[in-house]
Design brief:
Blueprint (H helix, E strand, L loop, with lengths): L14 H13 L5 H13 L9 E5 L1 H4 L2 H7 L4 E5 L3 H11 L3 H6 L5 E4 L9 E7 L8 H11 E12 L5 H9 L12 H10 L2 E15 L2 H10 L15 H12 L8 E14 L14 H12 L11
Parallel strand pairs: 1-2, 1-4, 2-3, 4-5
Antiparallel strand pairs: 5-7, 6-7
């Protein structure tokens, strides 16, 4: 029996809110700007990896906004796009068709759009997952799927939001006596422990703080809605009133900095790790022949061959 999973291993999420956010994402004109920027930054980390995957998975591709950087980095690699809902799979399928210029040059890679359950074990050398792991209730289950999908010596690279994200908004809600403004995010050190427990080798975790600003509270709330909204199971039940919305906007406007804009921080955690070759199973049974047992007894007790005849 393996050791218990590091805590926290399962997050408390309102999965109905998560599904609503995914439906909203499928109807959006483009992925969130923040996801696009993090995808660009994560792609820079691919430069430290010498391996060139022949096949890769882009996990939650549309929301992760990484298809373009992956196509540029690995133009010949076969790409498997995993989407969490039928609507997002349909959208990614439409985006997967290569343009005429790529077909003419023969540089268009093969793109297949599937659900997570349809990924073949050991079929890819890279799993790429940008800004999605914080949107699942059981990250360890997702890590296990990634490990299963990878071939030996393949690697995973992912990013997600960390616990310092939107600290200003959390403090504002707490000061107003309101329920949490968002679900909790997992610390990068816990994610590193989960990688090891899932079978990955040489995990490397990193994080950075990005500061975003908005001209007013309405612009801020609109962008936060595009990022998924509040998926905390302890959030306000039901809809809020216009009066409550006005109080929230007034409180947010009170956070304006010297430049007149509202600033919020986002902690982005980055991780990558490799799938090592399985170790040979260690036998729990030791076999000793009768002659070896006699020799061990003689050596231990200093008996001669005559005395050892009692073992017969």
């Amino acid at each position: 029996m393996s050791d218990p999973l590091p805590s926290p291993s399962v997050r408390r999420l309102d999965l109905g809110r998560v599904l609503t956010a995914l439906h909203r994402l499928a109807r959006a004109e483009s992925p969130p700007w923040l996801h696009t920027e993090v995808a660009r930054r994560m792609a820079e980390r691919l430069l430290i990896i010498l391996a060139k995957p022949q096949a890769l998975i882009d996990w939650w591709s549309f929301g992760g906004a990484g298809s373009e950087v992956l196509a540029q980095t690995y133009p010949q690699a076969q790409r498997v796009v995993v989407e969490p809902t039928p609507a997002l799979r349909q959208r990614s399928q439409a985006l997967a068709a290569p343009g005429w210029w790529s077909r003419l040059r023969g540089t268009a890679s093969t793109v297949t759009v599937v659900a997570a359950d349809d990924v073949a074990p050991g079929s890819v050398q890279l799993v790429w997952a940008n800004m999605m792991l914080h949107g699942v209730a059981d990250p360890t289950a997702v890590l296990a799927r990634w490990h299963q999908a990878l071939a030996v010596d393949g690697f995973v690279m992912f990013s997600c939001l960390g616990p310092d994200t939107l600290r200003e908004l959390r403090e504002l809600y707490h000061g107003m006596g309101w329920p949490p403004a968002m679900a909790d995010f997992i610390d990068m050190h816990d994610l590193g422990d989960m990688l090891v427990h899932s079978g990955f080798a040489d995990p490397v975790m990193d994080q950075e703080i990005l500061s975003l600003s908005w001209p007013d509270a309405r612009a801020l709330l609109a962008e936060l809605r595009s990022l998924g909204g509040n998926a905390s199971p302890d959030r306000f039940p039901g809809l809020r009133t216009p009066r409550w919305r006005a109080r929230l906007e007034d409180a947010l406007d009170g956070l304006r900095g010297p430049d007149g804009r509202i600033h919020m921080r986002f902690e982005v955690a980055y991780g990558h790790a490799f799938k090592a070759r399985p170790r040979a199973a260690q036998s729990t049974e030791t076999t000793v022949s009768l002659d070896e047992m006699r020799a061990l007894v003689r050596k231990r007790h200093g008996t001669d061959s005559a005395d050892s005849s009692r073992l017969r």
